[in-house]
């Protein structure tokens, strides 16, 4: 049996756990991070891609944006297609801010490299992770590290272990209030070895369903199709995927898509989820462990980063000057921002998708909202501020 001691125990080597570990290190606070999967697995996991400027600015401030600055794609706006027409929303002209396309797996690689270079205590392939004594002042993290059952005595534990993690499930029943919503929709996502057809993103509202043209680099495209929530990937051979993408993204004057080998594919069912509070005793929930947003507005990763920053600053106040107020304020402040992110993601999901229960009446309401967005500078400015995460402050 191994016995370790640290200040903050962290579960999960996704963006939130890795960023928290890095920020704590910069504050001179010790942490030990336990991850269930291998380093190779977490560095290969294709997920988010659109990063708000406030996330980019933070990564730059803390020395994690070297590759992002050289390989990330800076975007000033996006194209919205509906009714066979193309409309551009110029977010930078409206707000002064930009967004960046840079794969989440690249951010994870950069964060792991930084922690390893700093001698950070990151443990991969850890099994049987459990937590105990959360309501005392000596919470305990346990796991099997390289075959050795190990106990880690902590001051605090951060559950950065995603929706299916162990942290939230370790909180005694009745202590959390969970809010959940299942959308009757899924996204079939493909990563394609082909140059993006356009420089910016295209969100396309079509009578058969939504389609999104995104990208990861000048050579890699990322595309999504709305499918049924319980759709089976086996029903979607390459030719069906490409035909549906071509049809849904078509307008009279649009650039044709660049097709190529599909490197990665998957279907993500859409859900909204959040728990209150994001804390129990000395356990703090961070990122997807506490909330899930539909991917429509690309908020999941950005919300997780904001949680990690808020919690790191609160730990710095505790260890730096014995001030516990920021730790007490973490859950209410994080929930305020995360409900805003969830509400906008919900609204954007309804703006872009064709819901199975759509009627001619609701379809015309949807069209009216789209028309308002492209005709009114006020509406477009408000939308751009939420899309770029400015309005969450
Ligand atoms: P993560 O889920 O990234 O990380 C949690 C980590 O904890 C994982 O590495 C996991 O292995 C580990 N873990 C879990 N249980 C454990 C245990 N018991 N012990 C130890 N470790 C454990 N967001 C967007 O903004 N845009 C998108 O397009 C987008 N697409 C997505 C597609 C998919 C399939 C999924 C699942 C999510 C997507 N998201 C997207 C959301 C996603 O990017 C998350 O918001 C982001 O990964 C959140 O980061 P973390 O909170 O760190 O959680
Ligand atoms: C992505 O590239 O993964 C992406 C981009 C924009 C979105 C959602 C996902 O709104």
In short:
With 393 residues, this protein is α/β, with parallel strands linked by helices. The chain has helices at 15-26, 39-44, 53-61, 66-71, 91-95, 104-117, 238-249, 300-321, 325-352, 360-375, 377-387; strands at residues 2-5, 8-11, 31-34, 50-52, 73-75, 78-82, 85-89, 99-101, 121-123, 127-132, 140-145, 148-153, 156-159, 177-192, 201-204, 211-217, 220-227, 262-276, 279-280, 283-285, 291-292.
Structure description:
The chain has 393 residues and is of the alpha/beta class. It has two domains: 232 residues, FAD/NAD(P)-binding domain (3-Layer(bba) Sandwich), CATH 3.50.50; 125 residues, D-Amino Acid Oxidase, Chain A, domain 2 (2-Layer Sandwich), CATH 3.30.9. The chain is 36% helix and 29% strand. The strands form four sheets. The chain has an eight-stranded mixed β-sheet with strand order 7-6-15-16-17-14-18-21. Strand 6 and strand 7 form a beta hairpin. Helix 1 packs parallel to helix 8. The longest helix is centred in the last third of the chain and has 28 residues. It starts with a strand and ends in a 6-residue tail after the last helix. The chain binds arabino-flavin-adenine dinucleotide (FAS) and P-hydroxybenzoic acid (PHB).
Keywords summarizing the entry:
393 residues, alpha/beta, FAD/NAD(P)-binding domain, D-Amino Acid Oxidase, Chain A, domain 2, 2 domains, 8-stranded mixed β-sheet, 6-stranded mixed β-sheet, 11 helices, 36% helix, binds arabino-flavin-adenine dinucleotide, binds P-hydroxybenzoic acid
